[in-house]
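I am still getting used to backbone structure tokens and would like to learn alongside you. To get us started, please write out a protein record for me. Start from the sequence, derive the backbone structure tokens from it, and show both lines together. Once you have written the record down, we can walk along the chain together:
***
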Amino acid sequence: MTPTPGALGPDARDAALAAMTGQAGEHELDVLVVGGGITGTGVALDAVTRGLSVGLLEQRDLASGTSSRSSKLIHGGLRYLEMMDFGLVREALQERGLLLTRLAPHLVSPVPFLYPLTKPVLERAYVGAGLALYDGMAKAGKYDMGVPMHRHLTRRQVARMAPDFKAESITGAIRYYDCQVDDARMVVAVARTAAKHGAHVATRVKVTGFLREGERVVGVTARDLEHDQDLEIRARVVVNAAGVWTDEIQEMVGGRGALHVQASKGVHIVVPRDRIRSETGFIVRTETSVLFVIPWGRHWIIGTTDTPWDLDKAHPAASRRDLDYILEHVNEILREPLDHEDVVGVYAGLRPLLSGESEPTSKISREHTVVTPVPGLVMIAGGKYTTYRVMARDAIDAAAHSLRTTGHGAVRDSITDRVPLVGAESYETRANQRVLLARRSGLHVARIDHLLARYGGQIDDLLAMVQTRRQLALPLEGAEDYLAAEVVYAVTHEGALHLDDVLTRRTRISIETFDRGVAAAPRAARLMAEVLDWDDARIAEEVDHYLRRVEAERQSQLKLTDQEADEARVQVTDLV
């Protein structure tokens, strides 16, 4: 099957590196982006759609850091209203509407939440006013709101809607809507959209230093971790979007930079949907942050914590104390308490917060900042997932100024508010054809719905693959919610190079199965091997590494302190 435009298969990676290093005749990029999270991929997409030549390097996998470990919400941020950060909330709500209705309707979907009320009059008035402002900002934005308005509920209505919620302890609730997304899949979609428009994308490439001409940065030195090769890539402007690794990048330019990024650890747990009977999610206050109970297919995601983290950034570890904290707080609102035995999956991520040295991480704003510490280098940090497109636009606006000093000429304005992500085109048509697609493919309608929610209009690629190889229509052994075809597609179209990439980010098998993907690993590795030409030894190595990683995570979650959890988790690092 001929790969679709923007496919990130192994050959595309080789071609991207050849182009970036000048082997394909392109001796200097306009913009080189460092970092393959939501911000970095967004920057690449913004730059390439303005007509610039663009490369992107990621030292691990797409979304392997913060961007695959969020609360998976596209939201305005209710708590920022209380901080009086109205500009950030307005901006985020506008982006929420844009993503939901235009750019990524296949990936972003509305999700209802209950905000419980414990005081009869004043609290309802206070919270109701806040949510009226929240909805009003969304409705007054440039794009469609896309979700229903909030609604006041009595205690009896809450009991009908959420039977397992302790309704007797509240006076009522307010139901409001935000949106959710599979954060890692969104990053892949943004990266693929950038590649479709001409950006060169390469993962498993680590930046080791900067090329300089006088004071000016003119490119980077890097290491291809897959092939053990040193590279030089020249660019008029380098944009650093490395998130929690920002300080390390600043050190490469002699520590010159105006950004101080503090990592804040957020832990989430995943439990089966049948453990909490409710039609809607919840949001409740804790002493340090807010606790979300978020519907997630056949599961609930519950989190999060908000604590400083200064240990291993690549593999932040959840401790027993983190899990106890989440379970303790969620059990305060549930009739039937959850315990550790109910937890299917756990994940920990690091928020890259711009901060002063003494601020608690839960109080730090999610505003972003763009700086140019030396000519030819733009750095962006802070911000929140929902506003990635605005962050990317601001970074390339700064890069445009730097480009003009090299004689590049004027750079066009950002157009990403009019560039749908791959999968958005034809999504509504295919959704309307779901029964017909099921009949033609021989798959159950529920399978078609699953594929539509993950691939949108690109479901055509998956169905063509299934028609060619009927065995790919079978459920993946050990993780039957997914088809075998999805593993192959992750390699041929979505840039997956290792078993971790597939089980942890292209799918969510690592947090959606009680064994955390152990049973699915051998079959998934064999399917990947067909595309990547792995021999038996390599298959065994990939599976063994994944199993050891799962065990290291389990052991870390038994430890009481962050230090002990980190020591257990870093026993297994990345496979390269």
In short: The two ends are 28 Å apart (CA to CA). The first helix runs from residue 10 to 20. The CA atoms of residues 403 and 409 lie 7 Å apart. The longest strand covers residues 229-240.
